[in-house]
Specification:
about 950 residues, mainly beta, 22-stranded antiparallel beta barrel, 6-stranded mixed β-sheet, about 10% helix, transmembrane beta strand, transport, TonB-dependent receptor plug domain-containing protein, membrane, siderophore uptake transmembrane transporter activity
Length: about 950
Amino acid sequence: MHTIDSGEQRSMSGKVKASSLLVSALLFSGAQLSYAQDSAEEEVFELSPFEVTAENDRGYVAENTLSGTRLNTAVKDLATTMSILTEQVWQDTASTDINDMLIFTPGAEKSESQFGRGNSRQQWWGDNTMFRGVQVENIVRNQFRSNIPSDTYNASRFEISRGPNAVLFGVTREPAGLVNRTTQDATFTRSNELQVRIDDNGSYRTSLSLNQVLIEDKLAARVSLLDSNSNHWIQPGFQDQERAYFALNYTPNEKLSVKFRGEHLSWDRAAVNPSVPADRVTAWINAGKPGVDAAASDEDVEFPEGTANWTGNDIQTAFVNDGSGRMVQLRNFARGTGTRLLSGGIASLPVDFLPLDLNVGGEGGAQHFSGYNYQAIAQYRVNEKINLELAYNDEFVLYGFRPLGGSNLFVDANTTLDDGVTANPHFGDYFTLSTGGFAMDQDRFLRGIRASGSFTHDFADGDQYQWLGKHDFVLMFEQNTDEFYWDVLRLLPEGVMSNGEEGPLLGRVLTYVDPDTKSFSGPTWGYDMAEVMNSVPGNTYDWRNRLNGAGINNNRTEIDSSLLVWQSRFWNGRIVPTLGWRQDEITQWGTGPRNSPTVRLDSREVGLAADPETEGLKPSTSNQGIVFHAIENQGVFDHISLFYNQADSFSVANFGQRPDLTSMPAKTGETEDYGVRFGLFEGRVSGVFTMFDMAVANATVPTSWRPIWSDLGDLFDTIGKSEWHEVPQVNDTQDIKSEGWEFQLTANVNENWNIMFGLDHYKTFDSNVAPRTLELIDEYSSQWQGSSEEVPDRQSEANPSDPMTAGELFDVMQRKVDLQLAQVGGYKNNERQYKATFLTNYKILDGTFKGVAFGGNAIWQDKAATGFPFIDDPELGTIVDAKNPFYSSDVYNIGIHASYNRKIFGDKVDWKVQVNVNNLGDKDPFVTRHSVVADDPRTPIIDTYSRGALQTFVLTNTFKF
């Protein structure tokens, strides 16, 4: 750990304690203020055009947003494509963050369904989203970028904007869209809420929100607290949070409003592997469970069928995590072998081999977040035409990761301990091996200040030119700083003199797993592993920076932005054009120079260095949209409107580095959206049908390229380019085109019946995939093809007792590359092109069953391509048959809920109890990856199985007072 400059502490001291904050909040709730105004008449202040509240949201319907023009604008007057999730949505679905609800919006989904085996995707930031087939990391909080994962305890709404939008973001991480969450402000109406939730996984969650009027119509304050211990249905995964949120609203007069928002959080999580582990067990069982004498083992021993040694060319040791304090040499440690696939992976275990709710890696996917966000906003109404706003954002988050892996299951085939005499008590037991080869601490800072002004003029107020209608203008100036310091850590003992010596000395922990009892032979929490290993006398392990700061990645990006937006309403509001133009001036710094090869440097010691590639960069982006209200207020039709929108965006903040340490290029996006929007029955029904054509240049390639980069790094080691194996987040680019359509309907059929329905289709086409990776492979291939140079820590596929050569590894890597390139411009692994969703709630308002409500939700997703066979080409050899992919089945998911609502305690408390059954009847496991073996390249073998999801009961009690 290191100390942050300017007095900011890396590790958030004063961790939020829910119990003490709860006492403080209750005292705050009960306080009686003698200086409240006595006047019975309530002052009514007009909202600033720079804000939208959830007060007018009805059921699933939200009529206004800031996301189109940065002014409070009716959704029907916007040509941009968006979905707004109201409080009713997360109440009915018992959702706690955007990841739970995103699936109900067209063209969007949680990104984890797109990836393969392992918990790596869940190890990263809390909000993982995909829009129209493109990965998105745009997390926005009240129109400012944020790195704090979302939660509903302090939210008033979530706005999902799909496609580029220069009005919202000229320079951010992803041009494919964003999620803006609006947090709750203090209001001038006293309101309090206590919510307690439990589920049958043993989770509990308590939230308290207290809104108090301190000076009538002048000063109000809100305190919201969260204490959440959420157990994943896959055990022992969990996510624990403590959060505290505070909001202040001061409105001294009808012209001025000042608001403050602040939040602190502490978050611990053990991410799980959503897939079934690879099969390194059944071959050993089918071979008759052969045993190997550990003492007799050396690299010349022929291992029986069904078994393999761990590695034949490197002396490694591992701590046996069973309380014995034993360190074992892994060089010829006998364990089960697996079925090698042409995709480069190992075939999956049968889906029924292990309990679906067991994570074999235990709590190895450990992470810790802590941080804060502060926002201050001042709004001033100059007159009825001119409004001003000044907003400030300050945020810090520490991301700490100790992902020890352990997602692979092995079987111990050693009949004796190392002495060759003592019987091995774990012979035939399953185990995982966790390696401390990569961990991370990252400090992320976001600071921004924004000044906005609006001017409105309505020609309808005059005697002439009334047909010109109303015009709104917004002028905005904004400065943002995004800064991060990324330390890459390894679990190492004292005395390692060079980074090249680290491999055999990395901390390795061997933990036995009992599937029957779902127990582990020792602790698995990643943050405890150094202490666990040091229980052996003489061990001196700790999470350490690497020599010369290898792997460190620092960045500071400063962006000065100017934005001009114009929206007009011609012909009595029938024609509504919107134009937005934005320019961003960018200054960027990257990782500083490192010239201390014998010193362990942390990220602050390495510092920053100016990036000449961004010097003088001033990209301009724009939006052009128009809405034509073809029919208005005719019969059942409130309106039928045609719209068209064209927009682009630019992002300098492309995440990671390419395999040769060069910076990722800027990411750009363009979109055309057009369609029809309608409203029926006096606002009770609204819907939108959108056709889109979206293009993203220099998007990041999918994570399925990571095994290729791992192979490439090992190959670089064999030719003396080890520095190219030290990139903490290897990445490369691709161009993506996405085409399709989206339909969404929301309805408040009557006062007591709400419906939301969505249907979408998209298809992505990629090109120019991983250009720098392919250039490097082509440039150095002659040094690897046929090379007999041994690759450290890798085993031969032909004979697992032998080390892998560079030539063999190159062939393995090339097959993986061919598999990725086979999907270029065609079928994409696990891309489900059609999706339909339905959500409803019905309340009984009178009669015997007054207060009862019930409803449900259903999700259907189309089948997906999951892999490809191989064919023999007379000129090219064994190649991917890209025209005949394998497919998985459709995916269904159903949930139901029922509630009862009544007044209690003399009508002073509004009580609601609700039961949700999620994944009704279980969501069946489904295949996400198929592959083949060399002997039978046309028959699909399951590479990766998603576990699906088990049925879960959730009980929620809500008290409003």
